[in-house]
Amino acid sequence: MKSWLNKGLILLIVLSLIPISVEALESPISSAGERDGGIGNSTNYLDAAPNISVDSKVNQILYPLFATPAIKKKGETLTLKIDTQGKTAGEWNVKLKQTNHSSLTSEYELPVQSVKEGQSHWKDSSSIKDVTVQIPEGTPEKLYDLEVTYTGNGQRITDKQPHSVKVVDGYKKDFTFLHLTDTHIGSPRNLGDPEDPTSTDPDLAREAGMWNPDPEKRWLYLQKAIKEVNLKNPDFVVVTGDLMYGQMNPQEYIYEYEETYKMLQKLNVPVYIVPGNHDYYAQDATLADGAKYWEKYFGPQYFSFDYGPYAHFIGYNSFDWHKYDRSGHGTVSVPTWGGQIREEQLNWVKQDLQKNAETAQKGQIRGLFSHHNPLWRDREIWPQDDPEVQKYWKQYDEKNNPQSLDTLLLGEKLGIKYDQQWHGENAQELIDVMKNNHVNVSLHGHTHIDNVTKQDGILYTTTTAIELTGKPWVGFRNFTVNDGQISSYHYDESGHSIPVYENGDTKGGVMSYEADYKYANDGSASSQEATVTNRLDKPLTVTVPIYMKEGKYKASNGTIKQNYPSDGKQYLEIEVTVPANSAETITINQ
Ligand SMILES: [Fe+2]
Q: Is the same domain home to 106 and 208?
């Protein structure tokens, strides 16, 4: 979604701060083709940029990652992909460790069964090893960090990926997943009223907490959404991009990527993440390319995953443009923010679906998720009787990939007038691939509104933003699968998402549901009371995690889902259903 912020003002501020070469503005296209690394390997995009220093989060471990975790049943094997970066490797040691959410310290050693030469679909390297490990039967159901240590050319090397393995007791035939989108960390839009771009609303500013020195008070709308997601405890979560803003100044990815990465680790569930346009801009004033940041923080821009035999999902990058088309031309202004998928990625999606069909069981849910919805094409939506629109598509057809500067600037002008949704190539081709491969559901963001459209047997859902501009409210979507069918995907009859705030009212600041503990929930107490308040107009089922002193406990309310001792503590998970607009207290006693 395009900023409605006063672009002129921002432009002036940025132009006054950043020296921009006149040559860069006048003839930026000359080497664009050589700089475009193509799909699946964005490392070539920016190797010439000297001024970007990022502490890379993706190093030797290429799979599983924070943004592409593995969900595995205890007793099963898991094949890791490790890039030894040219070193001869041996003496492998693989562990699951407790995450930042856990009060426990137990680790679980995963015996290595085999090490083979491997490949990655997104990283060019000739030293990738497929390391197959087993999840021991005794591993409790939980989300874990992965730690891999090996000897490479005589040195012990360790790499970690937080939240990258979820161990389950079993896959559930009836399961739930949530969809969050457009979290926009760093967005100045959070401070004002969308109807009045000149205003700064103190109530909204409080919820945005924009760069508040106290990290607990920043991006409250996101922190509140995350607390609600954790309580819902879905089997997994998908996030469809626009994680940050990327349009304030050309260096902002340096801090926005870091902040986003930290903030999303407040999620205590496996989360699958693809980029949106705001994560993927390239600012030519500094050569800061969002595609390169993405690879260093989150890894691949497209991938697939399985939830046991019951679901197969593909996440893809719908902002799949040549770097030149993604560039701000010397300013924070960006001329392209609509969707596109190019041949290489489209072919990968098709092959992945065909491969999945060879082993798919009947009743498997097949889903695709991306930032832009391929149903909404600018070619069809932009008014065809506008002479500038006619001129634009003529120019575009004469030269695209990359476009000419003239075309880009006209596209930006028309985009501000009509917005940009699926702007470029291969929307119909992608839809045909989905139809031919019996895809059930297609999940998207970008427009910051809720919408549900059923077409050719595919459920297309667009979900509002976890940003204060979201309409009808800040929310996320809950999908429930029963008997191989998506049985629920909306909060109300209009197809809306679940509001994060009570009655969808952001300014009130009150969460639509939450849990409060009477005593510290860190394993020090021998009795506990947790009260779940549900301010929604629907009943709500949540899972409350409870850490007690080691012992035998009973719960006054709800169903005990987990109950095991570990390093002197007792871990319990209580599932409880709370009727609409009411509260339930769970008392835990010996
Ligand atoms: Fe957005």
A: no
Separation of 252 CA from ligand 1 center, angstroms?
A: 16
Q: Is the peptide bond before 402 cis (omega within 30 degrees of 0)?
A: yes
Do residues 59 and 158 touch, judged by C-beta distance below 8 A?
A: no
The reply to whether the predicted model has a pTM over 0.90 is yes
Confidence of residue 46 (pLDDT cuts 50, 70, 90): very low
Domain boundary residue, one of 504, 525, 558: 504
- Which residues are found with C-beta within 5 Å of the ion, ligand 1? 1, 182, 242
User: How far apart, in whole angstroms, are the C-alpha atoms of residue 46 and residue 86?
Assistant: 22
- Give CA–CA dist 313/244, Å, rounded: 24
Centre of ligand 1 to C-alpha 68, Å, is 21
Do 527 and 460 fall into the same domain?
A: no
Q: Is the pLDDT of residue 12 over 80?
A: no
Q: Do residues 425 and 359 share a domain?
A: yes
309 Cβ contact partners less than 8 Å away, ≥ 6 residues apart: 171, 361, 364
Range with lowest mean pLDDT among 303-317, 327-341, 356-370: 327-341
- Asked if residues 195 and 479 have their Cβ atoms less than 8 Å apart, the reply is no
Map residue 560 onto helix, strand or coil. strand
For 358, the 3-state DSSP assignment is helix
Cβ contact 212:219 at 8 Å: no
Q: For residue 475, how far is its CA from the centre of ligand 1 (angstroms)?
A: 13
Q: Is 50 helix (H, G, I), strand (E, B) or coil?
A: coil
Q: Distance (Å, rounded) from C-alpha 336 to C-alpha 265?
A: 30
The rounded Å distance from CA 86 to ligand 1 centre is 39
In the block, tokens 């197959």 appear at 132
**Phi, psi angles (nearest 5°) of residue 439:** -75, 140
Residue 430 clears pLDDT 50, i.e. is over it: yes
Question: Does some domain include residue 396?
Answer: no
CB 294 within 8 A of CB 275: yes
**Distance from Cα 515 to the centre of ligand 1, integer Å:** 29
d(CA 106, CA 96): 9
- Residue 286: the pLDDT is 63
Give me the number of domains the chain comprises: 3
What distance in Å separates the CA atoms of residue 444 and residue 370, rounded to the nearest whole number? 5
| Of 431, 470, 425, nearest in space to 451 by CA | 470
Q: Looking at the predicted structure, is the pLDDT value of residue 425 above 50?
A: yes
